[in-house]
Amino acid sequence: MSTPCSPKSGCRIGATEVRIGALALQGDFREHLAVVERLGHEGIEVRTPDELAVADALIIPGGESTAIGRLAVIYELVEPLRRRIVNGMPVLGTCAGMIFLAAGTTGAAQPQLGVLDVIVERNAFGRQVDSFEADLRVVGLDRPLRAVFIRAPWIEKVGGDVEVLAAVDDPSGGGSHPVVVRQDRILATSFHPELTSDDRLHRMLIESVEER
Ligand code: GLN
Predict the structure, then answer these.
(1) Residue 125, C-beta contacts closer than 8 angstroms, at least 6 positions apart
(2) Which mutation among 95, 127, 131, 154 tests ligand 1's pocket best, with the greatest number of atoms within 8 A of CB?
(3) Could you read off the pLDDT tens digit of each residue along the chain, which spans 212 residues?
(4) Distance, CA 111 to ligand 1 centroid (Å)?
C-alpha cells in the first residue's frame, strides 16, 4: 500500500490512499484512471513488470482483447500478471479485460491469463452497431447500475468458485448469461463502468485493497 498522504490529494481521514494501476497496453485505460483519481486515489499506467510491482490493485480495461494479449506477451507481462493475481492482488477486468483474465473463449485461441475460471463468448451481443445500455441488478449493490455494452462478451460457462453478480438475457432468446462475476479478488464485467459517472464497481475494487 502507498502512503496515506500525497501532495495531490492530501491526507484522507479514515481511509488509506491506494495506488491503482491500469494496464496501459491498449484500450481505454485513461478513463479508468480518471475514475480512480476522482475517488481520491493514485492511478498509474502499467506497461512494465516494475510498474506492476508497485500497484496495489490493477484494472484491465476494455479495448481489443487480442491486441492486449499480444502486447502483454511482447512486454513480458503475462507471467508477472498471473503471479500477482494468483497471489491475491485485487483486479477489475472490463470487457476486453474480462476476456484477457478468462480461462478461454468459445472461439480461436488467443493469449489469456487463465486466472478467472470462465469461458467467454466474444462479441456475443453482435457487432458494434448492436452496442447498448441497460440498467443491471448487481448482487451487493442497492440500486441498478447503468451498464454500457460495446461489442461486449458474455460468459458462456462459469467454474465452481465463480460467483455470478449480474446476468442479462440473450436478445435472441437463448437464456440468460452472466455479465458481472467475482472469483476471490477478481471482479470482471462485460461492460464499461468507466464510461458512466457510477463508480460503485471501482469502489468495490478499492475496498478489496483496503480489506487486505
Ligand atoms: N470485442 C472486444 C474483444 O473481443 C471487446 C470490446 C470491448 O472491450 N469493448 O476483445
Answers:
(1) 131, 132, 149, 151, 152, 154, 171
(2) 95
(3) 544 455 554 445 445 789 999 999 999 999 999 999 999 999 999 999 999 999 999 999 999 999 999 999 999 999 999 999 999 999 999 999 999 999 999 999 999 999 999 999 999 988 776 788 999 999 999 999 999 999 999 999 999 999 999 999 887 788 899 999 999 999 999 999 999 999 999 999 999 998 87
(4) 14
Whole-model pTM above 0.90? yes
Task: Provide the β-strand partners of residue 93.
Answer: 60, 188
| CA–centroid distance, residue 89 to ligand 1 (Å) | 23
- Find the 207 Cα to ligand 1 centroid distance in Å: 26
Instruction: Provide CATH code, domain 7-211.
Output: 3.40.50.880
- With the most atoms of ligand 1 within 8 angstroms of its CB, the residue from 98, 106, 112, 150 to mutate is 150
Our answer on whether the CB atom of 64 is closer than 6 Å to any ligand 1 atom is yes
Q: How far is the CA of 92 from the centre of ligand 1 (A)?
A: 15
Which residues lie below 8 Å from residue 174, measured CB to CB, with a gap of 6+?
none
97 lines ligand 1 (CB under 6 A): no
| Cell of residue 20, nine digits | 491503482
Side-chain-side CA neighbours of 167 within 13 Å: the count stands at 13
